[in-house]
Amino acid sequence: MANSQVIKVKQELKIATLKRGDIYRFQLELSDNSLGVPWKIPLVVIRGIKKGPVVGITAAIHGDELNGISTIFKLIDYLDPKELKGTLILVPIGNVPGYLMNQRFFSDNVDLNRIMPGKVGGNSSSLYAHLFTSKIISKFDYLLDLHTASHGRVNSLYIRADLESEQTRTLAYLQNPQIIVQKYDESGTLRAWANEKNIPAITIEIGNPNAFQHNLIDETLDGIVNTLRHLKMLSGQVKDMVTDAYICDHSYWIYSKNGGIVDVNVKLADKVKKGQCIAKVFNVFGQIKEEVLADRDGIVIGKNVNPNCEAGTRIVHLGVNLIDPLPEDIPGSDEFNS
Questions:
Q1: Number of H helices, E strands in the chain
Q2: For residue 167, is pLDDT > 70?
Q3: Distance of CA 26 to the CA centre of its chain
Q4: What is the DSSP string of 263-298?
Q5: Around Cβ 27, how many Cβ atoms within 10 Å?
Q6: Are 258 and 221 in a shared domain?
Q7: For the domain that residue 296 is a member of, what is the CATH number?
Q8: Cα 192 from chain centroid?
Q9: Are residues 187 and 280 in the same domain?
Q10: Is 220 inside a domain boundary?
Q11: Pairing of β 157-161 and β 201-206
């Protein structure tokens, strides 16, 4: 029979009151829902036997991005708190309303990862974000924020990080990704708020939405364990796992110019050449309306998998290395989907 324990409900996260060398599971109250009772966010706190950093791992800030949940579950199963230094705070489901509704957004259809840290006196998502950051994220010394592609798209296993910051660059290079992308902290993201508060943070994009992809989950787990070893929270050798990773200094989406039925013919992590056909848009009679071409050499970070295509649909997320900055007329050069 599986182990079980009574799950308590708490109003505050008080790490110092938790005895070392054990695992704690409880629900933390945030803002009220329309029943007049608080949303309760699940937390797992693993208190190491000795002092050390506080590392936070968050998943499902978008409610349909689920690979991070399984990653956290496997990490809990892997760890022995009596062999751990410091504290792990694990948030398997950050956006409880979105998860319950099986959707990316909060219950008011706002993207939580565009409004961090929220505010008191704002709308429902803004208040939830404020309590989420102030009650939980502010307790961290480091943050690994786990995401996936959004609905209708698929991702490689890749990292978003500010590679010009030594601390976040180190966190990125401790992981086990296919691709690492230089991304300055986009305003409103959890990563941006954490880094602003001197909590080094990176985003780990783990494949596809609404699924568990255990090959990518296991590779992500390897990177997290490597991180804990680097921080001396776990014993063991720190490994260099990015020797084969493709490092990009920019990424952007290539869009269709025509609507119709799109067939994207490149695979994740494919290297493409400038001028290469990466997708074809057909009309409903099977005639080609558009060949979508790569405008630069690069690597496929993510792509659209929904054949239903309006004009202006995102087709391929391309990672590139540039001598000069992207021109302003390239659509999507300043957009992101984590």
A1: 6, 19
A2: yes
A3: 23
A4: EE---TT-EE-TT-EEEEEE-TTS-EEEEEE-SSSE
A5: 16
A6: no
A7: 2.40.50.100
A8: 13
A9: no
A10: yes
A11: antiparallel
- Could you give the CA distance from residue 113 to residue 338 in angstroms, rounded to a whole number? 8
pTM value?
A: 0.94
Whether the bond into 117 is cis, omega within 30 of 0: yes
**Overall domain count for the chain:** 2
Supply φ then ψ for residue 289, to 5 degrees.
-95, -30
Percentage above 90 pLDDT, the chain: 90
Residue labelled with tokens 């708190």 = 81
Domain membership of residue 288 (yes or no) is yes
287 and 207 inside one domain = no
74 lies in a domain?
yes
Indicate which CATH number applies to the domain containing 181: 3.40.630.10
Q: Please tell me the predicted confidence (pLDDT) of residue 331.
A: 44
Mean local confidence (pLDDT), 163-171: 96
CA distance 7 to 4: 9
Please check whether residues 166 and 285 belong to one and the same domain.
no
| Three-class SS state of 217 | helix
Residue range 16-35, pLDDT digits in tens? 999 999 999 999 999 999 99
Q: Is residue 243 exposed (0-12), middle (13-18) or buried (19+ Cβ within 10 Å)?
A: exposed
Helix (H) or strand (E) holding 86: strand 85-91
pLDDT at position 249? 92
The tokens for 276 are 């290469």
Identify the domain containing residue 263 by its residue range: 253-320
Distance, C-alpha 12 to centroid of its chain: 25
Contact 59, 205 (CB under 8 A): no
C-alpha 188/C-alpha 193 separation (Å) is 7
Q: Do both 209 and 269 map to the same domain?
A: no
Whether residue 120 sits in one domain with residue 170: yes
Q: Which ranges of the chain does DSSP label H, i.e. alpha helix?
A: 67-78, 96-100, 124-135, 166-173, 190-196, 214-230
Question: Does residue 2 form part of some domain?
Answer: no
- Give, in degrees to the nearest 5, the angle at Cα 66 between 191 and 309: 90
